[in-house]
Design goal:
The termini are far apart. The longest helix is centred in the middle third of the chain and has 58 residues, at 239-296. The protein folds into 4 domains: 4-156; 161-260, no CATH class; 266-356, no CATH class; 359-457, no CATH class. The chain has helices at 13-39, 41-48, 53-87, 95-106, 116-121, 138-184, 195-216, 239-296, 310-324, 328-356, 358-379, 386-399, 406-423; strands at residues 4-5, 8-9, 110-113, 133-136, 222-224, 234-236, 297-298, 404-405. It is rod-shaped, with a radius of gyration of 51 Å. The chain is mainly alpha-helical. It contains 13 helices and 8 strands. α1 (13-39) runs antiparallel to α3. It has a two-stranded antiparallel sheet. It has a two-stranded antiparallel ribbon with strand order 3-4. It has a two-stranded antiparallel ribbon with strand order 5-6.
């Protein structure tokens, strides 16, 4: 081991045998990896595909790398075979054999001839571009083959992962798209007639283009995993696919809504007719009541009652027309709008009736109050009092005559209440004299007692 040569100290027989065993194992591992790469489904697909963009560029470099890999492997195999032959000459190798083996196993004794174009395209060998041959040691060859193999496998695995994931999912989504289109056409969801129909056309175009791009340029849809050194570390980019899948789901929901309209449209139209009819009847009742109020109540401003809105009836007729012609996509939003407007119209009609009949309600309340106090006075044996009888009769004539002046009638009722309170000995809760029907504390329109006033609590406290 004391003698040296350019490859370093001369190896002994044991060192040679150990080196040959190690190189043999490395040779077997490299061969297994190369054969697996050669049979990889992704590599076969790349060879037969019409590539574009990033994938085309990367595949050119990967093909050059794979070609170099086999070239290096053949050179490596040849050198290893030569070394084994030298070692096999003699059981106990001579010094000359050991020197030669040391040179083979440790020195740069492997000459590799290669194309300048191939070397330039290989991503890890661009620094050696233009050289027609290169000398390597076996260890350097192994390291170089590992680099080329890792970069080649990374590209092949990435392309294969995209092809394995996206085209199948796109095809499933396209099949769902076709089923959706078959549902959409009969209910009027068509391009140019309904926004969802336009969305279906756009989704169809996008999926067609997406599939073509995925097939020709899979690396454009690959997201490498940051910090990962493993071949194929990353995942397919499904951003476009996911967006179109969500858009198709929105269209499906829209079509389901249209189908639901087709199923219950008749009932909804019947309900709409009923609500509008009730609103019309309520407005008619309000108009009749207004005439009665104007005839029976004097000096009262009664709000005007408008007629039923013809626009709602016209829209209802349009809805029925849409239903007859199966224009469900137009019927759906129209029914939703009409249902809300019809409910609002019924509420407005009821409010009109309440506003118009308010004077009659006030008169009825005054009549009830007058009779209640008369009954209270009678229970205390004061019904024959002349003043009370006179004030009662005056108030009664005003409330039961037409037209009735509510302001004057309320004053008469209040005077009767005041007289009754005095006779009943409730000076502490006497009803104050009023100078008029308006402006008093605790009183509402036409001088009606407000909430919490003594008159509404049933009269004197001791009763």
């Amino acid at each position: 081991m004391g003698d040296t040569d350019p490859a370093g100290p001369v190896m002994d027989r044991d060192e040679v045998d150990r080196a040959l065993a190690r190189l043999g194992a490395e040779h077997e591992a490299v061969e297994t990896s190369l054969l697996a790469l050669q049979d990889h489904a992704g590599r076969r697909l790349l060879e037969g595909a019409r590539l574009t963009g990033r994938t085309e560029e990367h595949w050119q470099a990967t093909e050059a790398s794979i070609t170099l890999l086999w070239t290096y492997f053949d050179a490596y195999s040849g050198a290893l075979r030569t070394a084994r032959e030298i070692r096999a000459r003699r059981r106990w190798s001579s010094r000359e054999d050991l020197v030669e083996l040391t040179e083979l196993l440790r020195g740069e004794c492997v000459t590799v001839a290669g194309s300048a174009t191939t070397t330039a395209n290989a991503p890890t060998l661009q620094g050696r571009a233009g050289r027609l041959s290169e000398r390597y040691s076996l260890a350097a060859l192994v390291e170089l083959m590992n680099e080329l193999y890792a970069s080649s496998l990374d590209m092949v695995v990435a392309a294969d992962a995209v092809w394995s994931a996206l085209p199948a999912r796109i095809d499933l989504l396209a099949a769902e798209l076709q089923r959706t289109r078959r549902l959409a056409h009969p209910v009027g969801v068509r391009p140019g007639e309904h926004p969802a129909g336009d969305d279906l056309e756009r989704i169809t175009r996008t999926l067609t283009q997406l599939r073509e791009q995925v097939i020709s340029d899979p690396l454009a849809f690959w997201k490498p995993l940051e910090g990962s050194s493993a071949p194929g570390g990353g995942r397919p980019d499904t951003t476009v696919y996911d967006r179109e899948a969500r858009a198709l789901e929105e269209v499906r929901r829209e079509i389901d809504a249209v189908l639901a309209v087709r199923q219950d449209s008749e009932k909804r139209i019947v309900r709409l007719r009923d609500v509008l009819s009730r609103a019309d009847r309520t407005l008619a009742e309000a108009r009749t009541a207004r005439g009665e109020v104007l005839a029976k109540i004097a000096a009262t401003e009664v709000p005007v009652v408008s007629g039923p809105p013809t626009v709602l009836q016209e829209q209802l007729a349009t809805a029925a027309e849409y239903r007859r012609h199966a224009q469900w996509h137009r019927l759906s939003p129209l029914l939703e709008s009409l249902e809300q407007k019809a409910e609002d119209e019924l509420v407005r009609a009821r409010e009109s009736l309440t506003a118009v009949t308010a004077p009659l309600a006030i008169r009825a309340e005054l009549r009830g109050r007058l009779d209640a106090y008369k009954a209270k006075v009678a229970r205390h044996g004061l019904a024959e009092d002349t003043v009370l009888a006179e004030r009662y009769e005056k108030a009664r004539r005003m409330l039961w005559s037409a037209p009735c002046d509510l302001r004057v009638a309320e004053e008469a009722v209040l005077r009767y209440q005041h007289a009754a309170a005095e006779l009943l000995g409730t000076a502490q809760q006497r009803v104050p004299r009023q100078s008029g029907p308006h402006g008093q504390s605790g009183r509402g329109p036409y001088g009606r007692p407000g909430r919490g006033a003594p008159e509404e609590r049933g009269g004197p406290a001791h009763e």
